[in-house]
Design goal:
The protein is an all-alpha fold. Helix content is about 75%, strand content about 0%. The chain contains 6 helices and no strands. Helix 4 runs antiparallel to helix 5. The longest helix is centred in the middle third of the chain and has 38 residues. It starts with a helix and ends with a helix.
């Protein structure tokens, strides 16, 4: 059961990385996309010890992926605080001056630009990590993702 849950989490994380969701959405919020807090910044790598067995990763591959994840965390560290401010920054601007919609929009625009940078960094790291895998391993991962999507679709149907 634990392996199944881990596999599901890994497949979801890889799918989330492929679609580059908003990084700091609250987990469990309906209608919001985001990474689990358990695997900050790079979901696939947060569960590497479990994926490693399923994809038959070598020690060298696992270490390369760990390095990519560490680099991504370091690269995105500067943006975390900016993104955590969220709506509070907009609210602060509007509370100070309700007529200053342009300043509030500037805060939103800055946040969107920061989110885009974080997403681009995650996308690049995902591409690097997938580049570490052999063609056979990527095919197995594709199969795992497809199986997970099929199970989720069956659950969502009435």
């Amino acid at each position: 059961m634990k392996k199944r849950i881990t596999l599901i989490a890994v497949v979801l994380a890889v799918a989330a990385l492929a679609t580059a969701p908003i990084v700091h959405a609250r987990p469990g919020s309906p209608g919001r996309q985001g990474m689990s807090r358990r695997a900050p910044g790079f979901g696939l790598l947060g569960h590497l010890r479990h994926v490693r067995q399923q994809l038959d990763l070598t020690d060298q591959q696992a270490e390369q992926i760990r390095t990519i994840a560490a680099d991504l965390r370091a690269q995105n560290a500067q943006y975390r605080d900016q993104l955590r401010g969220g709506r509070k920054g907009v609210a602060d601007v509007l509370l100070a001056n309700p007529a200053d919609v342009a300043a509030a929009q500037a805060v939103l625009d800055q946040r969107a630009a920061t989110e885009r940078l974080v997403k681009q960094n995650r996308l690049n790291a995902t591409a690097k990590a997938l580049g570490v895998l052999s063609a056979d391993q990527r095919a197995r991962l594709r199969t795992l993702i497809a199986e997970r999507a099929e199970r989720r679709e069956r659950r969502e149907r009435p």
